[in-house]
Amino acid sequence: MNKKNLYNRIWAKSNNSWLLGIPLGGFIFLAIGVFILIAMQQVISYTSTTEFCQSCHIGSDTVVEEYQQSIHFMNRTGIRAECVDCHVPDSLLPKLIAKVSTGTTHIWSKITKDINLDNFESEHRERMANNAKETIRSLNSSTCMSCHDFDNMDTDKQGRTAKRKHSTKRRKDKTCIDCHSGIAHKLPEIVF
C-alpha cells in the first residue's frame, strides 16, 4: 500500500457513524479525568488546612490549644508548621493513605463521640500520642526533615548535648521523634 492510499484511508470520511464515538468518547473520558484530578486536589487542599483538623479536635481534646502554645505555631522566625506538616507525609500516595486511614478513624470517633474532654486525658491521650509517634518514626521523621535539615544545621551554635546527639554517628539509629517528642503537644502523663 502506498503512502497516498494510506493518507486517504485515514482522512477520508467514513460511512460508519459509530467511528465518531471513538474520539468523542476519548474526549469525554479525558474531561472526566481532568475533573476528578481537580476535585481531588481541592479535597486534599481543604483537608490539609489546620482549620479542618481543628474542626474535629476542638471540644474533643486539648491538642489544638497545646499546638497554639508551641514553637511550631508561633516563633521568632514567623514560620508556622501546620498540622499536616508534621502528621501527614508529603508524597502523594502515602499522603492519600494517611488521610484516608486517619480521616476514617477521626470521623468514626466524632460520630460515636468516643473521645471527649472528659475522657481524653485518662483514656485516649497516651494511645493517640504513641500512634502519632510511631507513625512519624515509621516515616523516619521525614515530616520533620521537610523543614529541619541536618545538612543546614550549624551545630557550632547548638548546645554541647545537642551538638553531640546531632552528630552523624550518634543519630544513625535514631529519628527526630525519638528525642523531640512533646514539641507541639504535651506528652501524656505516665502513671506507674
From TrEMBL:
Post-translational modification comment from the UniProt entry: Binds 4 heme groups per subunit.
Taxonomic superkingdom: Bacteria
Alphabetized GO MF terms: electron transfer activity; heme binding; metal ion binding
Membrane topology: Single-pass membrane protein
Residues annotated to bind heme 2: 83, 86-87, 185
GO biological-process terms attached to the record: anaerobic respiration; denitrification pathway
Listed transmembrane segments: 20-40
Binding residues annotated for heme 3, in chain numbering: 144, 147-148
This protein's UniProt keywords: Cell membrane, Electron transport, Heme, Iron, Membrane, Metal-binding, Transmembrane, Transmembrane helix, Transport
Cofactor note: Binds 4 heme groups per subunit.
Pfam families named in the record: Cytochrom_NNT
Binding site residues for heme 1: 53, 56
Localization per record: Cell membrane
Main location: membrane
Cofactors: heme
Domain NapC/NirT cytochrome c N-terminal: 28-189
Residues that coordinate or bind heme 4: 176, 179-180
GO annotation, cellular component aspect: plasma membrane
Family: Belongs to the NapC/NirT/NrfH family.
Protein name: Cytochrome c-type protein
Organism: Shewanella sediminis (strain HAW-EB3)
Top-level taxonomy: Bacteria, Pseudomonadati, Pseudomonadota, Gammaproteobacteria, Alteromonadales
